Amino acid sequence: MNLILLGPPGAGKGTQARLIEETHGLVQLSTGDMLRSLVASGSPLGQQAKEIMGAGRLMPDELMVTMIAERIVEPDCANGFILDGFPRTVAQAEALDRMLADKGLKLDCVIEMACDDEALVERITGRFACAKCGAGYHDRFKQTKVAGVCDVCGSLEFVRRADDTAETVRTRLQQYHQMTAPILPYYAERGMLKKVDGMASIDEVTSQIDARLAAAKGA
Ligand code: ADP
Ligand code: ZN
Fold first, then answer.
1. In sequence order, what are the residues at sequence separation of 6 or more whose Cβ sits closer than 8 angstroms to the Cβ of residue 6?
2. Residues in contact with ligand 1 (CB, 6 Å cut-off)
């Protein structure tokens, strides 16, 4: 089963993708994480990505599609994948459809995580992740069980993303509404769009997603 989690920054895509990975045996493909590790690798392509992201621009569609295309043919994706952070524009959604069709693959379900903009600022400015395993936490909504220790791997080191500030959140939200939200009708017209309430608790959102996936499987 191949699905997309679609929603504004901070909607909970990463949080839910990690949970779905475990329960449904799918692989999370976060294009943001993929790009950040590409930059960290220092390769020529990483250098190019760094310049584009540093200038606050979107990556070229072609680069993004190639990155995904190379990743989904790896053996761990055989059971299916969860796209988180991609596509971000209608052009990318169209390019994704073409690329999947070329490989004889298709999307099964697109889950919209609907949220109020005001809630997102607090979610994004409060989030942090384990430096070692990437598990996500929040100052208020999802604290570690033992202060300063990762629940999953026991690491004592955590990181915050440089772009998770109140100022950049506004710009990222604007960009979401302008560039990414038009993807919603694109998938709705194709009968693939399922909506969940991203304002609900993490557990409640998980069970809403499970119900949508069960319905999509049955269909
Ligand atoms: P995205 O991947 O969509 O940008 P994240 O999964 O990183 O969003 O979630 C943003 C922050 O909000 C994280 O710190 C996460 O722990 C927290 N969070 C995620 N879902 C919820 C929720 N339903 N209620 C409260 N906080 C949440
Ligand atoms: Zn960890």
1. 13, 110, 111, 112, 113, 180, 183, 184, 187
2. 7, 9-15, 123, 126-127, 136-138, 141-142, 200-202, 205
